[in-house]
Amino acid sequence: MKDKSSNSVLHDAAWGGNVQIVKLLIEKKMDVNALHGDGETILHQCCRSGKMEMCEHLVNHFPDLLEIKDNRGQTVLHSACWGGSVEIVSFLIEKGMSNNTLSDDGKSILHITCLNGKFEVCEYLVENCPHLLDVKDKSSNTVLHDVAWGGNVQIVKLLIEKKIDINALQEKGESILHHCCCSGKMEMCEYLFNQFPDLLEIRDNRGWTVLHSACLGGNVDIVSFLLNKGLDINALSNVGESVLHVACLNSKHDVCRYLLTNYPDLLAVKDKQGKSVIVIAAEQGDIDLIHILRESRH
Questions:
Q1: d(CA 215, CA 250)
Q2: Is the pTM of this model over 0.70?
Q3: What single-letter DSSP state applies at residue 66?
C-alpha cells in the first residue's frame, strides 16, 4: 500500500530513521528504488528528516540512490540542506556529491538552505563552498533573495558580512525587500528598512513599489508598517494599478478592508485600461470581495 503522496512504508521508515525496520522491509523484497509523488527516494526522505544513521546505512548499501534527482531536479544534498543537518550535508559532500548541482529552476544547495532558514548549514556552506554566494537561479534570484523570502534575519546578517550585493535585483526587477514584503516576513522587513532604507525607493519592472508587493502578500502588519514609514499610498504601477488594485487582484480581503478603512479614495482609482477595483473583483469572481467594496461606499 501507498499513501496519497505515493509514499511506501519504506519511505516512512526512512523518514522515521529506524534502520532495523528498513532492513526488515528490504528483506521482504520492498523496492528500494521506489519514488513517491514528488519523485523522492527513501534517501531523499531521511536526508530531509535529518536521520544520520539511516543516511549512512542507505549510502553504504545502496550508493546508486545518491544519483537520483526528484521531479524538481533536486538531489539528496538539496534535501539534506532543506532538512538542516550539517552532519548529513558534510557526509554527503565527503562521499563525493557535487556542491554545484542545480535544481531544474536553478537553485543551488545554498538557495535551498537560505529559503528554509537553516542557519548552521548556511554557515557551513559559506565557509566551505563560498563560490555558491555568486550563484543565481533561473529567475536571477540570489541567495539573499531567497533568505529574504524565507525570513531568517540571522542568515541575512551572515551573508551581508560576506559582502553579497544587497541591491541585487532578480529578473522582474524585485529587490530583497520586495521579496520579504510579499512573503509576509515582518521581522525581515523591519530589519531591512532600518539597515538599508534606500531599498524603499526601488520599483520593479512593473513599476511596483514594495507596498504593492506587501499588498500582493496580504500581510496587514507589513502594509501598515510601510505606510507609517512614509510609503506613498497613491503610487501607481506602469499600467496604473494602485495598491488596492493589487490587493483585489489577489483576493487579499484583510488588506482590502484595511486600505478602504484608512484610504477610501483608492476606491475611485482606475488603471490605464479604465478598470476600477470593483471591475477587478468582478473579473476575479470574488463575491465576498465585491461585498467588501460595496460596503465601503456607504
A1: 9
A2: yes
A3: G
Better pLDDT: 126 or 37 = 126
What is the C-alpha separation between 206 and 226, in angstroms, rounded?
A: 19
- d(CA 268, CA 189) in angstroms, rounded, equals 30
Taking only the tens place, the pLDDT of each residue in 143-167 is: 999 999 999 999 999 999 999 999 9
Class of domain 181-298: mainly alpha
d(CA 143, CA 115): 8
| Integer Cα distance of 34 and 149 in angstroms | 33
Exposure string over 219-244, b if 16+ CB within 10 A, otherwise e: bbebbebbbeeebebebbbeeebbbb
pLDDT tens-digit series, residues 230-261:
999 999 999 999 999 999 999 999 999 999 99
**Mind giving me the DSSP string for 203-251?**
--TT---HHHHHHHHT-HHHHHHHHHTT--TT---TT---HHHHHHHTT
